[in-house]
Specification:
By secondary structure, the chain is α+β, with helices and mostly antiparallel strands. It is built from 2 helices and 3 strands, in the order H-H-E-E-E. It is globular.
Length: about 90
C-alpha cells in the first residue's frame, strides 16, 4: 500500500496514533530508538521511466499527538463538495 495525497490531506495535527494508523495504515518501519516517528517507505516512478526513486513519508508525534509530517507527497485538492473527507475517530478510553 502506498501513501496518497488524499491520505495526507486527511492528516491534522493533534490526531492520536490510532487515528493516524486508520488513515495511513500500520507503518512499515518501527524504530525502537525513535518511537515517536513512524516511517512509510514508498517507491516513485515517473511515467514509463525505468528509474525508481525510493522515498520515505514520516509522521512525528509529541506527547502522543500528531505534531508534524514530512515527505514529498502533497495533500490532494479538496473533493467535489469543497472539503477533504475526514473521519473523526474518538480515542479509546483507558
Amino acid at each position: 500500500m502506498s501513501i496518497t495525497g488524499e491520505m495526507v490531506g486527511r492528516l491534522k495535527t493533534g490526531m492520536t496514533p490510532e487515528q493516524v494508523r486508520f488513515i495511513l495504515g500500520t507503518p512499515l518501519l518501527n524504530d525502537p530508538f525513535h518511537a515517536d516517528r513512524w516511517d512509510y517507505p514508498y517507491e516513485f516512478r515517473a511515467g514509463r521511466s525505468s528509474t525508481v526513486d525510493r522515498k520515505v513519508f514520516s509522521v512525528f508525534f509529541v506527547e502522543g499527538k500528531l505534531a508534524r509530517w514530512e515527505g514529498d507527497i502533497q495533500p490532494a485538492p479538496p473533493n467535489d463538495d469543497g472539503q477533504n473527507r475526514l473521519i473523526e475517530i474518538e480515542p479509546r478510553k483507558k
